Amino acid sequence: MKKNILFAAVTVISVLALSEMLLRLTLSPLPARPFEWPPADMTKHGLMADETLFWKLRPDYDGRWRLFKLAYTHELVSRQTIDWEARKRLVAPTYGGVTWQVNHRGFRGPLIPPEKREGTVRILFIGSSITFGWGVRAEEAFPEAVRRELEKIYPGTSFESLNAGVPGYASYQGMRYLEIILPQYKPDVVVAEFGVNDGTLATGREDKAWQPDLLNEIRLRLKNTGWARLVLRVFPPREAHAPIEDVKQTYDEAQRSFYRISMTGTRTRVSPADFEANLHRMADLCRKHGARFVTYMPCLYNEYGEAELIASVDFGGPEVLSVDEILSAYPQDELQTFFLPFDEAHLSLKGHRIVAGGLVRFFRAHIEEVFTRTTLQEKVK
What we know:
5-stranded parallel sheet; Rossmann fold
């Protein structure tokens, strides 16, 4: 009797295991629902899931760049007909040779040990894909360009640039990430770039409301099983949320609002009040750890179909660098060349160089004592 029960159990388990394997091979995972968190595209390629930060860079990942932006956001929300293959052929060469370049410690670019060498000024750049250098090589992104420029101006000082930009991050994630990085790396200067992702439409809840949830983790794991894929294809879930295009703001509304991007809705990933609070929290953390804090406000080009620059956030202060002020000094017909094709936010190679120059000028005007202090200390020794 016991043998029969054991044989039946082994048979059932074997059939279930075999069917699970076959279903996984034949049925691809369902695409992420618009209001699923974290989004599926934030936990693949060079990104992986993280309990505290929702996702983070995948250490040692250097896969080829495959994420092409082929349309401006205003084109996507207006549902324009686009020849995607033609655009891909046009855009792909711009990204040629670009890889993720994530080092062993999960930052982009060269490996920098936590222990800082004596006589070195360390600058930590934290932010979104704009800081990460979406679509350009790590050495071409403005964090590395700033380091090279500073070493020319201050030959007696050694500089390190730590690129902690992560695609998709908003200020809430940046604040939590800074809490982790500051005690380990003890930078002299922190440059925080946020504002674009903060103003995008929240996926059901604001970022701060998405906390690690065991039931949610179990649900996501079960959803990826072969049997779940089959059931969800036969009985697809209904989407209860309003379409994104029903809550997008107009260009005139954007000019008056705190956030200026076209995907802003009634609830954004980070509220305006929390955005300011998160930046103040970052500044407080930096003061506690003896670092100077600089806020980098990104700008957008051709948002809402307007071929001009627009500040992503209505935010200012004594140590706030507004990138639109740097780029708007150039002729109107040059503005498009500062951004990647069909991309309102990510800088081109030329854009990174110009922004790096603007950052260096800002540093010299506001925090030059940080760079000269180390040189003077070395001379005293």
